[in-house]
């Protein structure tokens, strides 16, 4: 009989010890995740992620999420502590994903983590990601290699400053140069590179706020020292291919505070999602009371995908399943909510979209929804206009907060890079106003319906 050996020789796979995936999340744009990474993240029990991983990506998955990065005034994990956390959860039989920015094996310390896993006998896989150099190259139109210009490229780091490497290659890409750009350039000049050599600093590569600074080696060295964070430094004559109005910069940046992003063409727009995380901060007593009397409700209306996600989480945790809802008419607002509902094995009886002039209440009026006991799961911040509209139609409405908004102060959107803001509901306007008291006049504001426009006028109007 033939046996196929695994990564640890002929040692059998011990499922009791769990399984670990070391995964590259890519350079910043959440859509640059690989298909395999997307699959294992959806199957994970635990996700440990760091600073360079987009929260928009992480928030898509239902696993326990553990932040291991470094932020001011926040506990952070040293590498050894991260290793212990990975081992601890895997030893409990869980599927663990260690999610790292870029690629795990290019300045990602993935090698240290698999050493730990080898030592304790926990099985693992490595899933590569798009490294920052590749992302920056593609999103700036600066080729790392190009016939007759650059036939070799090297990746280096900008630390430590007393041992900066300067390889003899046509193109050099330096990682982790937030505060050491001038130190690196001095080292490159000391190695004899011409002062006319082209230099580019790419800040926040592949993200909506990507910014590129170009010049010659001599020009950069004469500039006042600055901190570029997070940044990549590219040195080489292929930078001459850079154009300011490249494919990424020409697209308009739309800040989405909710709603269906398919309303904007991806060929012309980049969708930026408002960093207002949805967390399960529900009033558990209220949720349990509603679930205990679920038979009393005749219509279930989900205003967004998060209301679906967290409602079903509580439903299943209570020991119930979709059969508890068999007597109810189910409505969803928008395609994202409908798709999330299908993940739970249900298809909405009515799928609603506002037409820009009327809201969801008016759409339900068109369906002759009256005299119903309506359960309205949603945010802990009640959409008063929706409740009022449904009540005026002769319905009894029970709002149920199944999630709360957590605004991340360290991920506040830079409005200098935003061309348009789309508000999908009055609640979204109010959440936005907790961070921004004014909106620059050059930014186009679009609202989903009349009630959202009224809320916007109330909070931001002259």
TrEMBL record:
GO molecular function: uroporphyrin-III C-methyltransferase activity; uroporphyrinogen-III synthase activity
First-tier enzyme category under EC: transferase
Residue stretches making up the Tetrapyrrole methylase domain: 20-219
Gene3D superfamilies: 3.40.50.10090, Cobalt-precorrin-4 Transmethylase, Domain 1 (3.40.1010.10), Methyltransferase, Cobalt-precorrin-4 Transmethylase, Domain 2 (3.30.950.10)
Residues annotated as domain Tetrapyrrole biosynthesis uroporphyrinogen III synthase: 268-445
Record's keyword annotation contains Nucleus: no
Short name of one Pfam family: HEM4
Key words of the record: Methyltransferase, Porphyrin biosynthesis, S-adenosyl-L-methionine, Transferase
Cited PROSITE patterns: SUMT_1, SUMT_2
Gene Ontology terms: biological process: methylation; siroheme biosynthetic process
Biological pathway: Porphyrin-containing compound metabolism; siroheme biosynthesis; precorrin-2 from uroporphyrinogen III: step 1/1
Enzyme Commission (EC) number: 2.1.1.107
Keyword Methyltransferase: yes
Stated family: Belongs to the precorrin methyltransferase family.
Record-given protein name: uroporphyrinogen-III C-methyltransferase
């Amino acid at each position: 009989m033939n046996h196929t050996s695994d990564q640890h020789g002929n040692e059998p796979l011990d499922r009791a010890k769990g399984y670990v995936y070391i995964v590259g999340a890519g350079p910043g744009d959440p859509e640059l995740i690989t298909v395999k990474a997307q699959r294992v993240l959806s199957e994970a029990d635990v996700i440990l992620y760091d600073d360079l991983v987009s929260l928009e990506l992480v928030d898509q998955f239902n696993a326990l999420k553990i932040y291991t990065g470094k932020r001011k005034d926040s506990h952070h994990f040293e590498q050894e502590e991260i290793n212990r956390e990975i081992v601890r959860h895997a030893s409990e039989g869980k599927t663990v994903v260690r999610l790292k920015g870029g690629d795990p094996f290019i300045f990602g310390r993935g090698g240290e983590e698999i050493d730990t896993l080898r030592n304790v006998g926990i099985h693992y896989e490595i899933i590569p990601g798009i490294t920052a150099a590749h992302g920056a190259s593609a999103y700036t139109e600066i080729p790392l290699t190009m016939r007759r210009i650059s036939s070799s490229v090297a990746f280096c780091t900008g630390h430590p400053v007393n041992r900066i490497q300067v390889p003899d290659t046509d193109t050099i890409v330096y990682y982790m140069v937030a505060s050491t750009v001038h130190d690196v350039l001095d080292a490159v000049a000391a190695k004899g590179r011409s002062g006319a050599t082209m230099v580019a600093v790419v800040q926040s590569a592949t993200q909506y706020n990507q910014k590129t600074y170009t010049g010659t080696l001599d020009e950069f060295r004469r500039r006042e020292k600055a901190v570029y964070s997070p940044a990549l430094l590219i040195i080489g004559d292929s930078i001459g291919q850079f154009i300011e109005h490249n494919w990424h910069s020409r697209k308009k940046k739309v800040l989405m505070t909710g709603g269906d992003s398919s309303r904007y063409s991806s060929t012309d727009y980049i969708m930026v999602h408002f960093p207002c995380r949805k967390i399960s901060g529900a009033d558990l007593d209220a949720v349990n009371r509603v679930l205990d009397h679920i038979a009393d409700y005749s219509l279930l209306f989900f205003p967004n995908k998060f209301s679906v996600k967290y409602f079903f989480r509580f439903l299943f945790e209570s020991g119930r399943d979709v059969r508890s809802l068999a007597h109810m008419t189910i409505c969803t607002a928008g395609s994202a909510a409908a798709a999330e509902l299908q993940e739970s094995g249900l298809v909405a009886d009515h799928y609603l979209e506002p037409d820009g002039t009327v809201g969801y209440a008016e759409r339900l009026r068109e369906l002759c929804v009256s005299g119903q006991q309506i359960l309205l799961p949603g945010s802990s911040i009640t959409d008063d206009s929706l409740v009022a509209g449904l009540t005026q139609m002769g319905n009894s409405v029970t709002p149920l907060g199944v999630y709360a908004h957590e605004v991340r102060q360290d991920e506040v959107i830079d409005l200098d890079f935003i061309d348009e803001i789309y508000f999908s509901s009055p609640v979204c306007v109010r959440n936005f106003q907790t961070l921004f008291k004014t909106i620059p006049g050059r930014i186009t504001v679009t609202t989903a319906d009349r009630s959202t426009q009224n809320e916007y006028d109330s909070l931001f109007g002259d």
